[in-house]
């Protein structure tokens, strides 16, 4: 990570709010200067008053702009993993603990921009979507919160570096599954036919379990959510193996094909394991398993920069 | 329907403007055009408002947007309109017209926030130029409204979800916060007394003023107006009303009907002196603009004020026409000798009468002269004659078509206004070979009890006679001779009952007159303290602060410092509440801190990383007897701090109770 991230929540104290006039603000200033020249020349008291009132309003506006941004509290929420080439979504939770509404707070992360109002004493989520690039951990560069409220004459901004990173899985690429795996997958599809389920046990539902394995009947009876644990011997196991791919495929491409196979087998509801150099994930199924496999692929040591 | 501006709206040219602030912007533009309606060419005002209206329609029919191709021809047409309607391109009027045209066109092509700022700046300029024409409180009020609405519009564009009323409130708040800073800048900004560049002569418009000609009825015209001519503030007690002769144009030329001043009296006048004997009266005059050169002083000023000439006919004039309110200090002598050793040519001019004019008065003078009386006796005879002739003073003299106006007044109608008296008396004097002339100006004035300024109004306009006896000018007021009350008590007493009086002169309206006094005093306060705040006033004020003779650099430094302090004072309340530690303002958090402090005394200190739940669970394990209460405290605290719908006063009360009941 190029920049150190800061402990959260990040409170935007008055010292980290930068403020500068905007383009229109400079034009406004020039306007006031010309008006002052006119007032001096014509010695018109009311013209002086108007000029000074505008100048004073500009000064007051800068304080309003400043306090529209200062003393917010920002926390980055964990991001869900995405596939490379997809959209990484970062969520900032901005807490406005004060007794004033904040208007037109513009959050920016790379090219992504979001504009929102922050009601008083509330926490507002701001989501920013940026493209997910390479597999592995992608940390989000500095976030900028800025505002031009109320008059657009000044821009106040703060640069935040919360711990915001997203796990990027290798982009899935399709390629026919190896023979053994295909057979296993077909077996799995067949075994999902009616009356074919061999339920070995029920255990409490855990997040990530496949919905097809939820014991809907027991839920209907009024019980809690259970997951059917299928008898492993009954399901045919498939293996996704590093060595199943031709030797001339490089690491990155290889990871992408493997990622594609994980998705394919997951779609077919197969039970599968993953073999990588130095790592073995025992066969299982369910979203949690898929996530574990993809994570392993994502974090596979990079040959180029070990 | 409100459209949120899209986040890139600042850069995107075609983003539609949100409705509410766009409406406010148009209202603000209209308000800044409004004070100019009186002096913009009518066609141009109509065009400008038409463009405003067009822009309004565009808001809900975007198809009405004029193509860019059309804007250039429109602008050229507008500029051509300016040129056609106002010949001088570099004049103030043309400048304002061009601003108005630009504003209309800019509105038509306004699509993005960027353009909005330009429109606002154009409006600010328009408002400023309005003050070149009129600095009355009415225009100032209009300007303030325009400014307010424009600021609200700018706020609205930044936060388009806000309602109009709430943006107006915010704008008002900002103006109120800006006002003290404005006052400091206004008072302390170093004033210069000379303009940076030429101002261009502008004549007063549509004001009825004294002129350099007087014919029957011309002064009577003035008395229909009660607008204020000048205000005077005296050092010490003001002189009595009857001695307040405000000297204006001196008319020496007579054509049989009208008197006029052709300025020939200024050539070769002979020796003119003025000797003051006795006390002077010192006062400051604030003269309303009348578009002429002369300024008024009580007869006779001892010396000319600065920038003013003292002419041989004892008249004060300025080189430039008086187009703005001017203020000057002057002293007048209460006992003086106006010595004029007139040249023969001047004497001829001062006794000239057209040969056949006013035969009856001429004949009367000849019969008196035939008795061989001297000049003084002649004047005394004439005064007696005027007193005995039964001449009545009226505001509605019968119209005379006679070419011998003086004869017609003295012998036929016998009713007239001051110019009839003065004209007839002067004719009689000249007929008797006595150098005489008509002096016009104002007589009297009334002290406004509210601010003790003497106010002289148009209906105090007056004309009197001056005769040259033994090389001394003597004032003779024939009106006062025939109708002393006019001079001592004012017009209302002098006019016979039943004669129509100017509205405010009528006694029945005395309570209205009192209100008028307050209103005028207010107006005068505005003129003196706001509009008339100039270099002199500024240095007087600085002297009062003990900063006599402060130079411009120091004044500017003082202004910066004072403005900074005032700004800080204004702004501090805005940020102080937030400067307090985070969360301190939340009562739930305060209760929680108290709870943590009590637990710490039991040796159970909360780790910085520990949340409420984790902390209370740890306490519950360490001190099982406290478990139920402590767990509840943690739960309620979390609900109060992090919930949305669970933030209720009941829960807060419950939390307070739980913490109070906790007896470790």
List the helices and strands and how they pair.
The complex is a heterodimer of chains A (306) and B (664).
Chain A: E1 10-11, E2 18-21, H1 23-42, H2 45-69, E3 73-77, E4 82-83, E5 87-96, E6 102-109, E7 112-118, E8 122-131, E9 136-139, E10 143-147, E11 154-160, E12 165-169, H3 179-191, E13 199-204, H4 216-220, E14 226-230, E15 237-241, H5 251-268, E16 271-276, E17 279-284, H6 287-298
Parallel strand pairs in A: 4-12, 15-16
Antiparallel strand pairs in A: 1-3, 2-11, 3-5, 5-8, 6-7, 6-10, 9-12, 10-11, 13-14, 16-17
Chain B: H1 19-33, H2 42-60, H3 68-85, H4 92-108, H5 113-133, H6 137-158, H7 164-188, E1 213-214, H8 218-222, E2 228-234, E3 245-251, E4 253-254, E5 259-260, E6 270-276, E7 280-287, E8 294-295, E9 297-298, E10 309-310, E11 316-317, E12 326-333, E13 336-342, H9 344-350, H10 359-370, H11 375-388, E14 392-393, H12 405-413, E15 415-416, H13 418-431, E16 436-443, E17 446-447, E18 454-457, E19 461-469, E20 472-476, H14 478-482, H15 484-488, H16 491-494, H17 510-531, H18 535-544, H19 552-579, H20 587-601, H21 612-622, H22 627-642, H23 649-661
Helix pairs in contact in B: 1-2, 1-5, 1-6, 2-4, 3-4, 4-5, 5-6, 6-7, 7-19, 10-13, 12-13, 20-23, 21-22, 22-23
């Amino acid at each position: 990570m190029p920049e150190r991230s800061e402990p959260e929540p990040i409170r935007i104290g008055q010292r980290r709010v930068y403020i500068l006039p905007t383009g229109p603000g400079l034009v406004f200033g020039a306007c006031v200067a010309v008006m002052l020249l006119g007032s001096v020349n014509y010695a018109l008291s009311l013209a002086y008053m108007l000029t000074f009132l505008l100048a004073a309003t500009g000064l007051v506006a800068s304080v309003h702009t400043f306090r529209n941004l200062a003393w917010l509290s920002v926390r980055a929420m964990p991001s869900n993993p995405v596939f490379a080439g997809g959209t990484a979504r970062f969520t900032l939770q901005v807490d406005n603990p004060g007794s004033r509404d904040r208007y037109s707070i513009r959050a920016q992360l790379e090219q992504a921009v979001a504009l929102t109002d922050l009601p008083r004493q509330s926490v507002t989520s701001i989501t920013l979507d940026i493209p997910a690039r390479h597999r592995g951990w992608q940390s989000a560069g500095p976030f900028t919160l800025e505002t031009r409220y109320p008059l657009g004459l000044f821009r106040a901004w703060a640069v935040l570096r919360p711990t915001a990173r997203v796990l990027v899985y290798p982009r899935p690429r399709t390629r026919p599954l190896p023979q053994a795996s295909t057979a296993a997958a077909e077996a799995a599809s067949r075994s999902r036919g009616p009356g074919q389920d061999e339920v070995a046990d029920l255990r409490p539902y855990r997040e990530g379990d496949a919905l097809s394995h939820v014991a809907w009947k027991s839920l209907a009876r009024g019980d809690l959510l259970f997951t059917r644990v299928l008898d492993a011997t009954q399901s045919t196991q498939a293996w996704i193996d590093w060595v199943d791919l031709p030797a001339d495929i490089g690491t990155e491409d290889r990871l992408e094909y493997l990622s594609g196979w994980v998705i394919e087998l997951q779609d077919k509801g197969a039970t599968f394991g993953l073999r990588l150099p130095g790592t073995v994930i025992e066969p299982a199924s369910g979203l949690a398993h898929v996530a574990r496999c993809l994570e392993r692929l994502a974090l596979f040591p990079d040959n180029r920069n070990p | 329907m409100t459209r949120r501006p899209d986040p890139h709206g600042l850069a995107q040219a075609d983003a539609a403007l949100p409705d509410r602030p766009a409406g406010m912007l148009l209202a603000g533009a209209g308000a800044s055009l409004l004070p100019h309606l009186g002096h913009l060419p009518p066609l141009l005002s109509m065009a400008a408002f038409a463009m405003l209206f067009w822009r309004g329609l565009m808001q809900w029919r975007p198809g009405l947007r004029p193509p860019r191709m059309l804007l250039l021809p429109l602008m050229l047409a507008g500029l051509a309109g300016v040129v056609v309607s106002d010949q001088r391109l570099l004049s103030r009027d043309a400048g304002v017209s061009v601003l108005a045209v630009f504003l209309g066109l800019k509105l038509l092509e306004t699509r993005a926030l960027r353009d909005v700022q330009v429109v606002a700046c154009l409006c600010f300029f328009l408002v400023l130029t309005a003050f070149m024409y009129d600095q009355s409180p009415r225009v100032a009020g209009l300007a303030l409204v325009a400014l307010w609405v424009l600021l609200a519009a700018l706020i609205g564009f930044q936060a388009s979800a806000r309602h109009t009323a709430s943006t107006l409130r915010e704008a008002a708040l900002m103006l109120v916060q800006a006002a003290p800073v404005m006052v400091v800048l206004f008072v302390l900004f170093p004033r210069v007394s000379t303009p940076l560049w030429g101002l261009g002569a502008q004549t007063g418009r549509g004001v009825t003023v004294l002129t350099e000609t007087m014919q029957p009825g011309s002064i009577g015209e003035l008395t229909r107006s009660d607008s204020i001519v000048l205000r005077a503030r005296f050092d010490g007690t003001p002189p009595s009303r009857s001695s307040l002769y405000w000297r204006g144009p001196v008319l020496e030329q007579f054509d049989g009907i009208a008197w006029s001043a052709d300025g020939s009296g200024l050539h070769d006048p002979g020796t003119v002196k003025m000797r003051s004997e006795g006390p002077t009266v010192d006062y400051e005059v604030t003269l309303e603009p009348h578009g002429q050169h002369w300024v008024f002083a009580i007869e006779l000023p001892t010396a000319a004020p600065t920038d003013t000439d003292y002419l041989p006919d004892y008249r004060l004039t300025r080189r430039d026409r008086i187009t703005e309110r001017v203020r000057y200090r002057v002293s007048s002598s209460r006992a003086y000798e106006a010595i004029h050793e007139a040249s023969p040519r001047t004497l001829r001019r001062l006794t000239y009468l057209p040969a056949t004019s006013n035969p009856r008065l001429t004949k009367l003078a000849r019969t008196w002269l035939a008795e061989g009386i001297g000049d003084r006796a002649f004047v005394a005879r004439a005064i007696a004659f005027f007193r005995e002739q039964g001449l009545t003073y009226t505001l509605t003299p019968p119209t005379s078509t006679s070419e011998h106006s003086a004869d017609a007044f003295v012998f036929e109608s016998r009713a007239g206004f001051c110019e009839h008296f003065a004209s007839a008396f002067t004719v009689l004097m000249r007929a008797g070979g006595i150098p005489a002339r008509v002096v016009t100006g104002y007589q009297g004035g009334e002290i406004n009890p509210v601010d003790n300024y003497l106010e002289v109004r148009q209906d105090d306009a007056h004309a009197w006679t001056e005769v040259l006896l033994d090389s001394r000018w003597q004032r003779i007021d024939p009106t006062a001779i025939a109708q002393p009350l006019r001079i001592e008590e004012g017009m209302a007493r002098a006019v016979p009952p039943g004669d129509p009086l100017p509205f405010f002169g009528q006694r029945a309206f005395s309570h209205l007159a009192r209100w008028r006094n307050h209103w005028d005093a207010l107006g005068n306060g505005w003129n003196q303290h706001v509009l008339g705040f100039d270099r002199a006033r500024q240095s007087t004020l600085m002297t009062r602060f003990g900063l006599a003779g402060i130079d411009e650099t120091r004044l500017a430094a003082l202004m910066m410092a004072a403005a900074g302090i005032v700004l800080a004072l204004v702004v501090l309340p805005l940020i102080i509440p937030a400067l307090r530690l985070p969360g301190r303002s939340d009562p739930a958090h305060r209760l929680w801190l108290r709870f943590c402090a009590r637990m710490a005394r039991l040796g159970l200190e909360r780790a910085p990383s520990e949340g409420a739940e984790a902390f209370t669970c740890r306490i519950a394990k360490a001190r099982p007897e406290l478990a139920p209460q402590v767990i509840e405290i943690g739960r309620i605290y979390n609900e109060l701090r992090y919930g949305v719908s669970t933030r209720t006063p009941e829960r807060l009360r419950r939390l307070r109770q739980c913490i109070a009941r906790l007896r470790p």
